[in-house]
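To close the section, here is one more complete example, presented without commentary so you can practise reading it yourself. The ligand is magnesium ion.
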Amino acid sequence: MNYDPELVGRCILSAEDNEVNQIVLEHTLGEQDLPFVIVSDGAAAVAAWRELKPLMILMDISMPVQNGLDATREIRAEELGTGRHVPIVALTAHALKGDEEKCMQAGADYYLTKPINPDVLLSKVSEIIEQTNSPRIAAIV
Ligand SMILES: [Mg+2]
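Output:
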């Protein structure tokens, strides 16, 4: 994929295969100031992460080709030794006991359950952006 170079390092990457959820994400993310890119499977998410160096990833867990857990593991494995750590928010409809733990073990930083609640999602996004922009983090980067 060829992405607009303007997006590199300054967009939100969202991986979601369900069309209705994609529309909800488009509307929700459209309410904030950052550009965003939506891809439809885990392998596309890993490829887009390599190219776009996004500010964060909103990662659906249940996706075709490669699921969100495997995509998260692959990203964390590639980050090893680079000092990089993209914030990953796992999104799953399977609000079953043990799911949050599975997401965290795969390397996600946060966990939100579906159906997507726009207010909850947007506040998580701004929380992550605030942390990323904090002087402490900036000094480490
Ligand atoms: Mg899905």
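Once you have examined the tokens, check your reading against these statements. The first strand starts at residue 12 and ends at 15. The chain is about 45% helix and 15% strand.
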